[in-house]
Amino acid sequence: MLTVFAGALVFACLWFWSELTTWRRLVHSSNNRLIETAEVISLHADTIFALADQALAELTLQAQTFAGNDDAAGRLADEMQRLVRTSHVLGGMSHIGIDGRLVSTTLDRMGVGLNASLEEAVRFHRASISDKIHIGSANRGDRDSAAFLPISKRIDGPNREFAGVMVAMVDLDEIARFMQSFNSGGDSSIFVLRGDGQVLMRYPSRGQAMKAGSFDSTDIRSLSTSDVKGRHDYQLPGSGSARLSGYFRNTETGITVVASRSRSALFHAWMSRSGYPWLGIGTAYIGVIIMSLRWIRQIRLRELGEQKIAAQELEFRLIANASTDIIEKITIDGIRLYVSAAARNLFQRPPEELVGTSIFEGMEDDAKAQWQTVLSRLNQGATSQSVLYRHQEPDGSTIWLESALSRLDNANGEALDEIVVITRDVTRQQTITQELDSLAMTDELTGLFNKRHFNNCLSSMFADAAEKRQPLSLLLIDLDRFKLFNDSYGHLAGDKALRAVAEVIQTRLQGTFGIAARYGGEELAVLLSHQDDRAVRAIAETIRNGVASLAIPHAGNLPFGHVTISVGHATIVPAPGGSQTELIAEADRALYLAKSNGRNQCRSHRELGTPNTLKNTG
């Protein structure tokens, strides 16, 4: 009997140890999944905030550039409407003036919550000169409208003084829909928190989800000073119910995403799966046969557990292979250990052939330098990094890729020499960004640079020429009697003629590194560097002859009968500390000379005597 008791006791201890190990493994796995969930949601939210920041940066620049211009204010309001219509993340935009009053908005109704958010944004940016975005408090426009998260940016005056606020209302339903795919049961919850601990969003929503306040009783400041991601177990206030939690904090915006689930619910689920046959322990002393059967059953359960773990690993690989993003596991030196099926489309090679190869293989020099930098940071202790780089396709085309790198930890939390890389094609986003940059500096009608960008180039080139004591030239080009052309043939024909002249200028400037812009209504301008007066005159004559060769009919432009241009050009060596208005004035005087002497000709400022105070007549 003693032998049976001892055997049963040993069996019970081994069984308890096995169950305890399984429970700890389950808790660790659950925590890792919660951290991964928080990271994925944070990256999605960061993408949405970046799109809002991009729109705010564009509108803020326009507001600063055209401050006080009523026509520009109307265009700014139209641009706000356009951005809201074309964006899937913006629910509305508002422009607040220097006095804190609403200048314009795309929203039809403004509830108390939104008004409070706008006032909060004004107070924050009036007190802070930072040009970074400010994330406000989540709220609803009114009882029936969508939930918004106000993202605001300060508008500066000429002397960096406060000149207003531009606010973008991010549609929180976009983030909520993304969160739904991570709902692992009724006991799970996801929080989106601001850096000061205020709850911006909670899923699932429970009555007070949109009400400002702290994240339960948890001190959120402990998250803001901790690692970028990790565990954050806590207890619900009042009930004392323990919850498992994983978080991920965005170091740029301060936004923290917390995914949690009840520890007791996980325990009950585990209990329901494992059976926890405590009654078996009480009956183990009946005999060796029952004890043996129990032991065999435990062996079988362990085998089933290992099969389940293997099934989960297989499930992960199936999910990775089904993803459109490329998922890889690499060493710290960049050697691939695992590659998902999506790599076949990008690298035109089977994934199994890529295993064992280096990620640097076939990579451009710039991209290789970026990758070496982020791998070095991960090797020095960083937990995650990202890299944006160009990749050349087999057909010679170039696409943009973005890779997120995360270093793996073992069960003890120690860093391994393995890195998970998730790569996605962001060519479309980069193309949109480049198109927005192009629109900001290009004249829509002619395709030349606009006046604002031209003035920036003039300032930069003037300062460079003054420093190096090199010549700088300006050509001012005006279409002769263009008002009569518009009156006779209509503005559509006038626009077509302007585009034709612009094309001539761009063609004739090839190889000269000249910068051409639409300077006024029918006035165009060209900047040239490192050219003497004779070379500039030759370029000007080439442009004039090119326009004349178009032979665009213009009955009112006698005696020529077709569209012609007059060109005034000036070449100076700027003096240090000089003003660029000197160059503009000289070219303008030369243009007046060309106009007053019969038009359809090029004149230099060197043909002038003392400055002429008369104005051009068109």
Global mean pLDDT:
80
- Ends: how far apart? 119 Å
Low-confidence stretches: 207-214, 610-618
Shape: elongated
Largest sheet: 6 strands, antiparallel
Decide which structural class fits the backbone. alpha+beta
Overall strand count: 22
Number of DSSP helical runs: 17
Percentage of residues in DSSP E strands: 15-25%
Helix content: 40-55%
Over all CA atoms, what is the radius of gyration? Answer: 34 Å
Explain what you see.
Helices cover 45% and strands 22% of the residues. It is of the alpha+beta class and 618 residues long. The chain is elongated and about 125 Å long. Strands 1, 2, 3, 4, 5 and 6 form a 6-stranded antiparallel beta sheet that branches. Helix 14 (482-489) crosses helix 15.
List keywords for this structure.
618 residues, alpha+beta, six-stranded antiparallel β-sheet, 22 strands, 22% strand, elongated, disordered C terminus
Short structural description:
The N and C termini lie far apart (119 Å).
List the helices and strands and how they pair.
Elements: H1 2-65, H2 70-86, E1 90-96, E2 102-105, H3 112-127, E3 134-135, E4 139-140, E5 147-156, E6 162-171, H4 172-180, E7 188-193, E8 199-203, H5 221-224, E9 229-231, E10 234-235, E11 242-249, E12 256-262, H6 263-274, H7 278-283, H8 288-322, E13 326-331, E14 336-339, H9 343-347, H10 351-354, H11 365-379, E15 384-392, E16 398-409, E17 415-425, H12 427-441, H13 451-468, E18 472-479, H14 482-489, H15 491-508, E19 515-518, E20 523-529, H16 533-550, E21 565-572, H17 581-596, E22 602-604
Parallel strand pairs: 21-22
Antiparallel strand pairs: 1-2, 1-6, 3-5, 4-5, 5-6, 7-8, 7-12, 9-11, 10-11, 11-12, 13-14, 13-17, 15-16, 16-17, 18-20, 18-21, 19-20
Helix pairs in contact: 1-2, 1-8, 14-15, 15-16
